[in-house]
């Protein structure tokens, strides 16, 4: 349960008097002294702050300090006025409780400074913004203005507030300041005309004279020299450490910030100047006939100047200082004033002028700083009222001031001591009564409506007849004699009869803070606060806006015979209002103590402090705190605040709040003596315990915040993750698609390339084949075309020539005819008839020609060479052309009748012509022969059946040839068979196959140019058939055989066409040797054909009979 706090750590003495051990007045003072000596000027008694005036500036009001105390627990840090201000401000802002800060203490104890510190702290921590800053600035700047006019140097304090001030600062729900209201209480106006020894008048007089520019002073008709003014005491005109001139500038600036207009400031300064002038007006007696002295203004210069300043008619004011008009019912009696009365009137005017000016200033400031918005607001009141005063010579003012302090003490007692005890009783908490002095009796002595001192003073003032201070004292002596706190020499109470410290013209009151001896002199006057009506009327007549406002009772329309309320009555009423106001608010106490009477920073006058501690009731305060409990709170808010500290109460507690708090406390193992359960509240004895709870709560809140943060962060991250995951899937899908697409395209492209290569290759192969085929076809066609072409052209040339000649003849003839006809008929025809006749004639001729031609067309046989002769030579070309066309058409017709076989026969014939025409003399004889092929009718003739079956291919040619014997050149008959694949030689008689040579083994065929049937079949060297050697054969159908062989080789795709060698000398390979076959022209044919003879080993000679 040990909780470390800054309040308790490293402490000088103890920070909270409640923790003082042992508790006695000595230890209390010792603690204060120790702390004071270590510059610890603040000490707590529970929530009350004791503040010792350090009389020097300490570095504890810096912005860093403000931050340090901001939003911190009250007991968390070492005691400071900021902790109290923070507590009050937060309680106002967060719990919606109006606050008041009650600052009490003697004059010079540091109340005003404390109030400024509180205000500046609140200004520093509350909201910011242009509007808010303006409000703050105005609130803060109201201080220098009021201090200049309401503070003065006294023997106790160089800057003593001579008025009471209560300021309500208003905040909105956010805690931003909205504005404020200042109430002022009884300015000590007697100071305007007279100051005790060693004291000064109000600061403003000195500030104006030292700080204003020469020009301003001239305008105000003032002189810078203080000594020129009667109202300014001279012995302490300047205060050490105070720069009046600089302060004047500060005040002017502050007035501007608060919102004073320049003409308002001028008016105020004029009034201040007027007061100074007023003090300089002096009077002299002037004897009157009735023997009485009448006062006269001595030197009228000051009067004149003052009247000029305020716009008053000099004579009016002058008269008001010499006469006084007393109105009784309807009568008006004018009496003269003696010199003393004139001085009294002058001073009364000065005091009234100044105090009314001061009140006007407060009203004017309020106008500026009042909250603009009409919304509900929270209020923090700061009370800085003059402290308890005991002077050598105490008068009405001290009486009033001390009465006010009595009331404040009363409210302190009410709220802290009595309330506390009563609450314990109410709550049923065991309580040992603490004796304390209740000053209610003193308050009663002063303010009792029936026989209180103020009531009696009023009674005296209002009583007809002679009223003096003595009569007032007599009355007091009579009525209050029995009162314990009232002492007077002449009272019935005999024990004071011999008390020489008690003069006859005085009375003494035992205030809570000590006995004060009051001189009765002046009480009646001051209470009456009389200002002769002539004076107020004179003021009202002034040609000066502000003065007029200040003296409304001077208005003739407002003649009021009723006496104005007395000063005492007014004060009592306003104090009453103040007390009621304070009671509605949550009080925060600052109890100021001055350490010495010398304004010294290092002296701790024990007796003086002890006295203050006693009358402030601080010891009782501590005792009550210690006997009782430092902290209490209703169960509901307590449970609400701390329920998170226990699992059973968090997050919801179902039962009654008290039970919940009990569970909570036992769960937290708080020692039983540390708390007590009241009827509606829990009481916690020690602040430590409270702080322990607070600390636990803070930690718990942190943990909860961390938990929330954790869950939130987790949720956020998860969301982010899921989003990313989703996106990643999309991205991946897209990427894969893209990659696959790319891959596919690549493959597709490659496939296309490969395909195109393969197709290209195939196509080229096919193209090659087709081209070859086509070339072959084209070659045949071209050859035929050239052949036909040549023939046709030759024919055409001839025909053309013929036609030309005929045409020439016709033309000549026609011309001749025409000439003749024209000669003959010239005389009958007109010029162009000749041409028509010519055309007609030509047409007729052509018509006749066509008809004739049709009739005489030759036969359809292509070999028919007949053609009708031409009738006219001019038709020569046409005639030949028509013959050609007709022949072509006839040939086409003829060809179209051909069967496939016949076509093949003709193709063969054509081939034979290509091979042999004009190359071999045998050829012409073959043209008329039809190429029959099978001359032996091999498949019909039973003789050749065996042979036929031996040859499995279709036989293309079968004939009998003679095979030339290589030895003697004699021929022996052989059957020659040609199939698609081979050449077969067989015995003529037996039909037995002698040799079968595959066509592939044939290298070439050699024939002579002569009219013979010899041919050599040459075999390819190295082939299987070549072993036996080449064949030398002879046949009459040589042309047909060679042509067929050639054609077979040409149609065979994988063979080169057979080479046909036509020459009269060629080599034949017989077995191992080569034999030359030579053809020679023999004698003319004599029956037999060509004969062959072996000449030698190397020569075979063939003699061919000549054809001639
Ligand atoms: N907290 C403080 N720090 C420094 N000086 C202080 C402090 N409080 C008071 N004083 C000094 O004491 C003087 C009197 O204080 P003041 O507040 O005017 O007294 P009071 O208002 O109680 O009469 C101030 O002028 C100032 O010099
Ligand atoms: Mg003060």
From TrEMBL:
UniProt binding sites for ATP: 105-112
Intracellular or extracellular location(s): Cytoplasm, Cell cortex
Lineage top rank: taxon: Eukaryota
CDD domains registered for this protein in UniProt: IQCD, MYSc_Myo1
Entry GO terms, CC: brush border; cell cortex; microvillus; myosin complex; plasma membrane
Domain TH1: 920-1106
Similarity comment text for this entry: Belongs to the TRAFAC class myosin-kinesin ATPase superfamily. Myosin family.
Record-level GO BP terms: actin filament organization; actin filament-based movement; endocytosis
GO MF, one example: microfilament motor activity
UniProt-annotated stretches for the region Actin-binding: 575-597
Domain Myosin motor positions: 12-698
Biological function: Motor protein that may participate in process critical to neuronal development and function such as cell migration, neurite outgrowth and vesicular transport.
SUPFAM superfamilies per record: P-loop containing nucleoside triphosphate hydrolases
Protein name: Unconventional myosin-Ib
Gene3D superfamilies for the chain: 1.10.10.820, 1.20.5.190, 1.20.58.530, 6.20.240.20, Kinesin motor domain, Myosin VI head, motor domain, U50 subdomain
Entry keyword set: Actin-binding, ATP-binding, Calmodulin-binding, Isopeptide bond, Motor protein, Myosin, Nucleotide-binding, Phosphoprotein, Repeat, Ubl conjugation
PANTHER family: MYOSIN (PTHR13140), UNCONVENTIONAL MYOSIN-IB ISOFORM X1 (PTHR13140:SF802)
């Amino acid at each position: 349960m040990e909780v470390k706090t800054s309040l308790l750590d490293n402490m000088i003495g103890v920070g909270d008097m409640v923790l003082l051990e042992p508790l006695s007045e000595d230890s209390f003072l010792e603690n204060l002294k120790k702390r004071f000596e270590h510059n610890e000027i603040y000490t707590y008694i529970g929530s009350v702050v004791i503040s010792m005036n350090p009389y020097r500036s300490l570095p504890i009001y810096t912005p860093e300090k403000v931050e340090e105390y901001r939003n911190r627990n009250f007991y968390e840090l070492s005691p400071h006025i900021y902790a109290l201000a923070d507590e009050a401000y937060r309680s106002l802002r967060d719990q919606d409780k109006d606050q008041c800060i009650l600052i009490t203490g003697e004059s010079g104890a540091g109340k005003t400074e404390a109030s400024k510190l509180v205000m500046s702290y609140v200004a520093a921590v509350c909201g910011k913004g242009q509007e808010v800053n303006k409000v703050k600035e105005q609130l803060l700047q109201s201080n220098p203005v009021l201090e200049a006019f309401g503070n003065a140097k006294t023997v106790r304090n160089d800057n003593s507030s001579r008025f009471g001030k209560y300021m309500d600062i208003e905040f909105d729900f956010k805690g931003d300041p909205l504005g404020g209201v200042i109430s002022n209480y009884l300015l000590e106006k007697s100071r305007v005309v007279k100051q005790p020894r060693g004291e000064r008048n109000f600061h403003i007089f000195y500030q104006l004279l030292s700080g204003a520019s020469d020009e301003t002073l001239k305008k105000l008709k003032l002189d810078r020299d203080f000594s020129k003014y009667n109202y300014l005491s001279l012995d302490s005109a300047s205060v050490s450490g105070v720069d009046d001139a600089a302060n004047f500038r500060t005040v002017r600036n502050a007035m501007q910030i608060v919102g004073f207009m320049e003409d308002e400031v001028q008016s105020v300064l004029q009034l201040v100047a007027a007061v100074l002038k007023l003090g300089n007006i002096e009077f002299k007696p002037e004897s009157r006939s009735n023997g009485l002295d009448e006062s006269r203004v001595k030197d009228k210069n000051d009067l004149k100047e003052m009247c000029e300043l305020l716009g008053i008619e000099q004579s009016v004011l002058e008269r008001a200082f010499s006469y006084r008009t007393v109105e009784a019912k309807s009568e008006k009696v004018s009496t003269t004033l003696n010199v003393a009365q004139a001085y009294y009137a002058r001073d009364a005017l000065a005091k009234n002028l100044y105090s009314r000016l001061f009140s006007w200033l407060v009203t004017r400031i309020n106008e500026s700083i009042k909250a603009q918005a009409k919304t509900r607001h929270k209020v923090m009141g700061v009370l800085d009222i003059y402290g308890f005063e005991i002077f050598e010579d105490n008068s009405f003012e001290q009486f009033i001031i001390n009465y006010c302090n009595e009331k404040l003490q009363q409210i302190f007692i009410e709220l802290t001591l009595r309330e506390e005890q009563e609450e314990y009783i109410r709550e049923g908490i065991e309580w040992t009564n603490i004796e304390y002095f209740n000053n209610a009796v003193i308050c009663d002595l002063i303010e009792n409506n029936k026989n209180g001192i103020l009531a009696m003073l009023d009674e005296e003032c209002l009583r007809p007849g002679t009223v003096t201070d003595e009569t007032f004292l007599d009355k007091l002596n009579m009525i209050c004699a029995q009162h314990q706190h009232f002492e007077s020499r002449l009272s019935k109470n005999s024990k004071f009869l011999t008390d020489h410290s008690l003069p006859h013209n005085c009375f003494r009151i035992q205030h809570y803070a000590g006995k004060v001896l009051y001189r009765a002199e002046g009480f009646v006057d001051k209470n009456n606060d009389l200002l002769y009506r002539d004076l107020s009327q004179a003021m009202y007549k002034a040609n000066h806006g502000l003065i007029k406002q200040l003296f409304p009772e001077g208005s003739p329309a407002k003649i009021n015979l009723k006496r104005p309320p007395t000063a005492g009555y007014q004060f009592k009423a306003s104090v009453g209002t103040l007390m009621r106001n304070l009671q509605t608010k949550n009080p925060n106490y600052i109890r100021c103590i001055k350490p010495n009477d010398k304004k010294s920073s290092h002296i701790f006058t024990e007796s003086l402090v002890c006295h203050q501690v006693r009358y402030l009731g601080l010891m009782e305060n501590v005792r009550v705190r210690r006997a009782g409990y430092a902290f209490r709170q209703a169960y509901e808010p307590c449970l609400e605040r701390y329920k998170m500290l226990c699992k059973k109460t968090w997050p919801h507690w179902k039962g009654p709040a008290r039970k919940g708090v009990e569970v909570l406390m036992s769960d937290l193992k708080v020692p039983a003596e540390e708390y007590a359960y009241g009827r509606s509240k829990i009481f916690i004895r020690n602040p430590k315990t409270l702080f322990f709870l607070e600390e636990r709560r803070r930690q718990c809140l942190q943990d909860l915040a961390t938990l929330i943060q954790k869950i939130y962060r987790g949720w956020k991250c998860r969301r982010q993750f899921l989003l990313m995951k989703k996106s990643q899937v999309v991205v991946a899908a897209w990427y894969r698609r893209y990659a696959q697409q790319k891959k596919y395209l690549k493959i597709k492209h490659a496939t296309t390339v490969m395909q195109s290569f393969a197709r290209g290759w195939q196509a080229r192969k096919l193209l090659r084949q087709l081209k070859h085929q086509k070339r072959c076809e084209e070659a045949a066609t071209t050859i035929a075309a050239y052949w036909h072409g040549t023939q046709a052209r030759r024919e055409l040339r001839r025909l053309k020539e013929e036609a030309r000649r005929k045409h020439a003849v016709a033309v000549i003839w026609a011309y001749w005819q025409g000439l003749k006809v024209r000669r003959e008929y010239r005389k009958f025809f007109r010029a162009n008839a000749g041409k028509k006749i010519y055309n007609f004639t030509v047409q007729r001729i052509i018509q006749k020609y066509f008809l004739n031609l049709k009739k005489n067309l030759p036969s359809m046989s292509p070999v028919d060479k007949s053609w009708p002769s031409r009738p006219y030579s001019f038709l020569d070309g046409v005639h030949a052309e028509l013959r050609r066309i007709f022949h072509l058409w006839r040939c086409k017709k003829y060809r179209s009748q051909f069967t496939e076989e016949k076509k093949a026969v003709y193709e063969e014939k054509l081939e034979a012509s290509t091979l042999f025409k004009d190359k071999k003399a045998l050829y012409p004889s073959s043209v008329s022969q039809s190429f029959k092929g099978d001359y032996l009718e091999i498949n019909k003739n039973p003789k050749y059946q065996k042979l036929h079956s031996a040859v499995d291919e279709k036989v293309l040619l079968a004939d009998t040839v003679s095979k030339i014997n290589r030895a003697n050149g004699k021929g022996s008959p052989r059957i020659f068979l040609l199939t698609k694949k081979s050449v077969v030689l067989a015995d003529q008689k037996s039909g037995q196959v002698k040799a079968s040579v595959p066509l592939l083994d044939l290298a070439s065929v050699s024939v002579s140019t002569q009219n013979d049937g010899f041919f050599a079949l040459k075999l390819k060297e190295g082939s299987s058939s070549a072993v036996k050697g080449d064949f030398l054969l002879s046949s009459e159908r040589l042309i047909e055989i060679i042509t067929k062989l050639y054609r077979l080789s040409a149609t065979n795709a994988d063979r080169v066409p057979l080479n046909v060698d036509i020459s009269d000398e060629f080599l034949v390979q017989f077995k191992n040797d080569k034999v030359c076959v030579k053809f020679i022209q023999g004698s003319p044919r004599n029956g037999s054909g060509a004969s062959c003879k072996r000449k030698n080993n190397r020569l075979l000679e063939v003699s061919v009979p000549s054809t001639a």
